[in-house]
Specification:
77 residues; five-stranded antiparallel sheet
């Protein structure tokens, strides 16, 4: 199963962004999403940002993930 996860952009360097969620940070490519900047939330799949989200939508999605997978959310924090 593949899962795309909302993550917050914390740094940008050209077409690469450092994103983080629940204490996990990753470098991802942002070439496919126009105008990404620090502070944005993006959906990340396989190391690539595939869509930008409004902060409220990202937070609601993350809340639903925690509700569906409470053990995973606790162990990753």
């Amino acid at each position: 199963m593949c899962l795309a996860v909302p993550m917050k952009v914390i740094e940008m360097e050209g077409p690469v962004a450092r994103v983080e969620e629940a204490g996990v940070s990753r470098e991802v490519r942002v070439d496919l999403v126009e105008g990404v900047k620090v502070g944005d939330y993006v959906i990340v799949h396989a190391g690539i940002a595939i869509e930008r989200l409004e902060p409220e939508e990202a937070k609601e999605t993350l809340r639903l993930f925690e509700e569906m997978f409470p053990e995973g959310a606790e162990s990753s924090r």
